[in-house]
Model the fold of this input.
Amino acid sequence: MRSEATRGWLVISAPLLYALLLLIGPIIVILANSFWTQDYLTIDRTFTLDNYRAALGEPIYRDLLFRSLKVSAIVSVVTVILAYPVAYFISFHGGRAKGLWIFIITVPFWTGYLLRILSWKVILGYKGVLNSALLGLGVISEPLETLLYSLNAVIITLAHSWAAFAILPIYVSLEKLDRTLLEAAADLGQGPIRQFLRVTLPLTLPGVIAALLIVMIPTVGDYVTPKLVGGKDGVMIANAIQVQFGKASNWPLGAALAVTTMIIVSMSAALMVLALQLFRRLMK
Done:
């Protein structure tokens, strides 16, 4: 057994080391930069906490971080709420066509990410598809100006962009669900709603948690979607980080913003997981 374990570690050592370097290396570089200062192209490597004081003390960065967390939380919850019925339908009523349904769900994501965002600009624009449809139905008398370049546009676009990534983990959890437990609940007189609340939802909660994390963590760091469909009201913390690394040429401040965001997002994700685990225990 020792020799087999040794051979196993030798086999995976090279790719494991490569993966660790790719994951940990950039984090170490960003962390080191966050404690330095920069004057145009000159970097002063003297240890300082001024970047973190600016990241946590200046109202503009606090507001952007709070807005990013709020948008990420809303997108995560909305996406999971919309994804769960789809995954439930495929798992319980998909029959032999389950593979086809999964294929259909993933087809839109074969196109580029930018193309999907730009398509939402066409849909939500002043003379876009949605406004034209509402005008044609007589619901509104003039095109709505608040659909595009707003926080709502960012939420809608992000929810669509990450929908498949929420459906798949929930679907996997539903597929692993022992159907005999539902039959036993039905034999004990539990209706469909109580079966779902007492059996299906608690047992598939790991898939829900995974879907929430898969959607929440990347959306906080998305700067392309807010830039293209958010306008001035949809700017998020990632846009501020991108500006610091780009036009402002202030890598240390950008690094401090990135590290601060990473820590706060990690804490928020941990609190969310603990809350859902507590909810799971209460449902038993």
In short: The radius of gyration is 23 Å. Residues 49-283 form a domain with the MetI-like fold fold (CATH 1.10.3720.10).
